[in-house]
Structure formats: structure tokens, C-alpha cells
Design a protein that fits this description.
The complex is a heterodimer of chains A (about 100) and B (about 250). By secondary structure, chain A is of the alpha+beta class. Chain A is about 40% helix and about 25% strand. Chain A contains three helices and five strands, in the order ββββααβα. In chain A, helix 2 (about 60-75) crosses helix 3 (about 80-100). The two termini of chain A are about 15 Å apart. In chain B, helix 1 packs across helix 9, helix 4 crosses helix 8 and helix 5 packs across helix 6. Chain B is globular and about 45 Å long. The N and C termini of chain B lie far apart (about 50 Å). Classes of the chains: A alpha+beta (about 100), B alpha/beta (about 250).
Chain lengths: ~100, ~250
């Protein structure tokens, strides 16, 4: 299917981008976070992103996922509002690429 | 009254060794195998470092640095891409127990960046902390810093640009948020100590100012020290990682 990218940044904060590699069924093959943000526990962040592999992109609650990822990894330099904005952009991208019915088997 | 003493190491070396030593000190500080330390070093040759989470191709002008033989190394810390000029920049690394810095991330940056602020002011440059992790003068970036935390220890390392070749810096880096204007836009956002004070500041002056600035900011007296055998051994093994293409291109 291809690659989906969404990023967010607010003034005075760091950039965060989520990149998803999807298969033809819009199932996540891999996910990574890119940017100049900080994380007290980068391994936890990477582990959470790895856990997305095998999930259908449209079935992920991005807002909850990003909130959990930030909490588990001690993400800093990026506010809650920026993560919410990123979640909306990700959901929009997934919907655009995978279609409205992507969440339905 | 200083609250105590702190080890000071002044060094220079390859970017691979420097990044390996910063990580070794962080890991060993976490298990109380080394003391709190300020390390001041020069990268030889001039180098670009990128943050742990950065995309290599999105944060560095790869064609430019390849043509000029400027090495690129991924850091263990987050943050953005940095140009370390061997003839115009001193890198500082502070390794502390995480207990001795504020839990709030911005306040921990503020505390340690205060050493850079005071150093710049000692040289006559009216600098100030700009959250989250910068020091600015005349509204332009004078120093950037990055942190990594492991096992209850904190590493903060950053730049002190006393006479950095800002054109090479601007051409080497790609900065998020600077979509238009490229190198000239980056050039306008950066200032060196020499430019700030209107005279050529030397490396020796920069180092002296940093020692005094950090001494005041952290309320410590520095004692010149050297690396422990454990630090040297761990840094030597970590150096392979920093030399590897796999690590640098971890996020292409």
C-alpha cells in the first residue's frame, strides 16, 4: 500500500513525525517516530511503535496510542496539544489512503 | 560557598570517541561508577551530529557534507542536528545523577544551560536561556543542547560557538521548520560569541569562560581529572557503534 507520514509542531516545541509502512490491506508493517524531540526512555517508545505491527491502521485509536507512548517513554519537547493534533492528522491520512471503510473487515 | 567539587575533563578527539565517551559516562554514572563530571571537548575533524530520533537525510545536507568530508554521527541524545566546528566550537557534556537536577525537563535544561549563559556573559555577550534547550543572544541561537537519561543519570551535551564558520554550519544542516530560504535562513538564526562581542574570541578564552560559568551555575569547584579505566574500556567498545553505518543510518 505504501507509506503514511504525519507530523506536528507548535511554536517553541519540537517536531514529531510518525511514519507508517502499510501493506496492501492497510495493515501496519512497521512504524517509527522521527524528529528532534526527547525521550527519557527511547527503548519504551520504540517498543510501543513495534507493537503496532500487524494492526490495521484504521483500527488504531491514535490519540490514546500517542498519549500512552508519551507517558511510557517520558517524551518531552512536545505538548499534549501537539500530540492530539498529530493524532488527528494520522487518522485523516489513514482514512485518505485506506478509505472510509478501512476499519471494517 | 560551593556545594562541592566536580570532575573536569578537557579533551579533544574524533566524533566517534567523543560520542562513545559521553554515553559511557552516562551509563557508568547511572551505576555510581563515576562521579559527576563536566567534560569540555573539541571535535576533530569538524563534524555534524544528529539527534537519536532524527532522519539522517532530513536533518543533514548529505551531498554537501560528503563533498567536504565532514563526518556525520548519530547521538544517544535527542534534539536536532548540530555542526561542531573544530576551529570555532567547544562542546560541553555534563553528566550528573538525575537526583541532583530538577525533575521538570525544562527546569533541568535551564539549570545546565545557565552555565553557558554565564560563560557567554563573562565574555561580554548578553545571552539568555530560550526554552526548551537553547541559549540565545540578540534573538539568535548561540548554543543548542540535548539530553539523554539512563538509569537515574542525566547527560546534557551542547555547543558553545565561539567562532563557528556559520556558512558551513548553515550549508551542512537541514532544520525542521525552515522550509524556505534553506542555508540563508539558518544563517540568520545563528550567532557566535565572536560576532556577539565584535572581536575574535579564542578557544582558550571560551574554555575558561565555560569552566567559570558552569562553576557558578552548578555551584561547584572543578577539579581536573582523567578518565577511569572503566570509562575508557566502555567508550572503546561503544566507539564501534558510533563508527557504524547502521547506527548513523538507523533512521535513513
Amino acid at each position: 500500500m505504501g507509506v503514511i507520514e504525519a507530523s506536528a509542531k507548535r511554536k517553541g516545541e519540537k517536531v514529531i513525525m510518525i511514519r507508517l509502512v502499510l501493506n496492501e490491506k492497510c495493515v501496519i508493517e512497521s512504524a517509527e517516530a522521527l524528529g528532534d524531540f526527547f525521550a527519557a526512555n527511547p527503548e519504551a517508545l520504540e517498543e510501543m511503535l513495534r507493537s503496532l505491527a500487524g494492526a490495521r491502521a484504521a483500527s488504531v485509536e491514535w490519540r490514546e496510542f500517542l498519549k500512552d507512548m508519551a507517558r511510557a517513554s517520558g517524551l518531552y519537547g512536545v505538548s499534549r496539544e501537539t500530540l492530539d493534533s498529530l493524532a488527528v492528522k494520522l487518522a485523516e491520512e489513514v482514512s485518505r489512503v485506506c478509505g472510509e471503510g478501512a476499519a471494517v473487515e | 560557598m560551593p556545594r562541592g567539587t566536580m570532575r573536569l575533563i578537557i579533551d579533544e578527539g574524533t566524533p566517534f570517541f567523543n560520542m562513545a565517551m559521553d554515553e559511557a559516562m552516562l551509563l557508568l554514572r547511572g551505576i555510581n561508577a563515576v562521579e559527576d563530571t563536566l567534560r569540555l571537548y573539541v571535535m576533530r575533524p569538524s563534524t555534524v551530529t544528529i539527534g537519536y530520533f532524527q532522519s539522517l537525510s532530513q536533518s543533514v545536507n548529505l551531498e554537501y557534507v560528503r563533498e567536504r568530508g565532514i563526518p556525520v554521527v548519530r547521538r544517544v541524545s535527542g534534539g536536532g542536528s548540530v555542526y561542531h566546528d573544530s576551529l570555532g566550537e567547544v562542546t560541553y557534556a555534563v553528566v550528573l545523577s538525575a537526583d541532583s537536577v530538577p525533575r521538570d525537563y525544562m527546569e533541568s535544561f535551564r539549570l545546565i544551560c545557565e552555565g553557558v549563559v554565564r560563560a557567554a556573559r563573562r565574555l561580554g555577550c548578553e545571552a539568555s536561556f530560550a526554552p526548551l534547550n537553547d541559549v540565545v543572544a540578540h534573538g539568535r541561537k548561540l548554543s543548542g543542547s540535548a539530553q539523554a537519561r539512563r538509569l537515574g543519570a542525566l547527560l546534557q551535551h551542547g555547543t558553545f560557538m565561539y567562532a563557528t564558520d556559520v556558512d558551513t554550519l548553515a550549508n551542512s544542516l537541514r532544520v525542521p521548520g525552515v522550509k524556505y530560504g534553506g542555508a540563508s535562513a539558518i544563517r540568520k538564526r545563528v550567532i557566535t560569541i565572536s560576532e556577539c562581542v565584535g572581536r575574535c574570541v579564542s578557544k582558550e578564552e571560551a574554555i575558561e569562560a565555560l569552566i567559570e560559568g558552569f562553576s557558578e551555575a552548578l555551584n561547584v569547584e572543578f577539579v581536573r581529572g582523567k578518565y577511569s579505566p572503566a570509562e575508557l574500556e566502555l567508550a572503546k567498545s561503544l566507539e564501534w557503534k558510533y563508527r557504524s553505518r547502521e547506527w548513523t543510518a538507523l533512521r535513513p
